[in-house]
Amino acid sequence: MTSKIHPALIVFTVFVFIFLVGPLVIVIGSALSNTTYLTFPPQGLSLRWFENIFAISAFRRTIITSLQIAFISTFIALLIGIPAAYALNRYRIQLPGWLSTLFVLPVLVPELVLGFALLKNFAAEFSAPIFLSLIIGHTLLVLPYVVRVISASLASFDFSIEEAAISLGSPPLKTFFTILLPNVRSGVIAAFILCFITSINDVSISIFMTGPGISTLPIQILAHMEQFFDPTVASVSVLLMALTVGVMAIVERTLGLTFLAK
Amino acid sequence: MKRYSGWTLASPGTLLVVVFLIFPVLATIATTFMTPNGIFAPYISFFGSGFRRTVLWRTIQISFITTVIALAIGFLTAYVVSRAPGWLKSILIIAAVFPLLTGVVVRSFAWMIILGKNGILNSTLVSLGLIGEPMTMLYTQGAVIVAMVYLFVPLMILTLVGVLESIPDDLIQASASLGAKPSATFRQVIFPLAVPGLIVGAVLVFTGSFTAYATPQLLGGESQMVMGTLMYQQAMVIFDWVSASTIAAIMVVITIVVVLLMTRIARRLNPMAV
Predict the structure, then answer these.
(1) Is position A7 within any domain?
(2) Residues on chain A touching B172 (C-beta within 8 angstroms)
(3) Could you read off the pLDDT of B61-112 as tens digits, one per residue?
(4) Residue B99 in contact with partner chain A when CB distance is under 8 A
(5) Does A24 reside within a domain?
(6) Can you give the CATH number for the domain in which A83 is found?
């Protein structure tokens, strides 16, 4: 039995969800319009603005750059974040308490500040390649997600299983891949998705690291909007939403969607 | 031996954070104290400028209003979601997760279409005869706040659904069986138990709005400059890196103060800890 909810509260909730989903429906509608200006409801259905994305070379280039950066930085973050999360949980008593704080620092430091600091003290100071700076910035951005999500999965892991394997003669690396990793599989998938989506949508770090020749998709969208307010941006937005839907479908099939609410 | 391997496993991550986050951020803040004009010169000039004080005050105002509205909407909605039957709850959670996973540029852009001079809201209001001619909605403080609320409500809902679900049903039933009206149960049982979650949500929303860039840039523009957009302008348009570093330092300090203050309040208010 649960207590009754006041009808006014239900009406309110309905409005909140219209408020949440409505604007995205409007973006999709505008992307399908056959007009040269943004309008909703769409006038005459057309996919010409989707074709226009790929006709603009800056969009083609930045889509590829953004995907590369998202994959590489997510991969690096998993590679260094999983062992870190493991160490923080397995050797909690031996390791100092500040170490776990250190891994949430990227969340505490405003992204804009991190972006600017990396530009000033790394990219500009050592004239480091922009692509490398972007990878470093994005890896730092997503690392806390890996550590937090994997730590949550490890919290319910019984480390004595691992000790049993080792005491029976299993080498450490083999133990990691056959005992530990399968047990935190759902955490790894969730971390991958959160990192990938966060990286692909990032503005605040990338905005300082883009220059002639290299840019990411969200920054290119901003640049395009400054000059044209046509449905192209709406159709790029729809592409990004389609990517999100695809990713959510993967979560749904592997973990169930309520997983994300945890 | 075990201690050694713990450090070994954590060291690549530690090194990355120290070298590429802690060091550059501290170095950036340090430069603001090492200008030839004296140790606090950049701060004196920041707070001495009426324009910059206005920007700081506007940012605080926008973040505060956004936080309060997002808290109210998020709490009430999360309450309904947490009491919804299983299938409906899944759908509602998907409907909240989806905007959250959609990028900030896309979500801000949606509000540009809605609030523009020839946007949907204006044309609807004109055709209904409620207003004579389109109003200026874009590039106002209201536009920034609406888009920020839109940005953060899903986060608030998802944070609070977890908190509200973890409140044992027994407590609510006990309250009801002792004669409390639903509204009294809501105020005296559910709300106090949700306070720690509300504080976590408030910290996320306040710090997020305070350091936002894309949304105020797109919906506020030059006329509604906030700390984030001012910092970008100083760094990348005017190339005054000392000024940009000063703004960065102020943002870091305010973020840390808010986080520390709120976690302290959360600890004190947590009824479970007493």
Answers:
(1) no
(2) 2-3
(3) 999 999 999 999 999 999 999 988 888 998 999 899 889 989 999 999 999 9
(4) yes
(5) no
(6) 1.10.3720.10
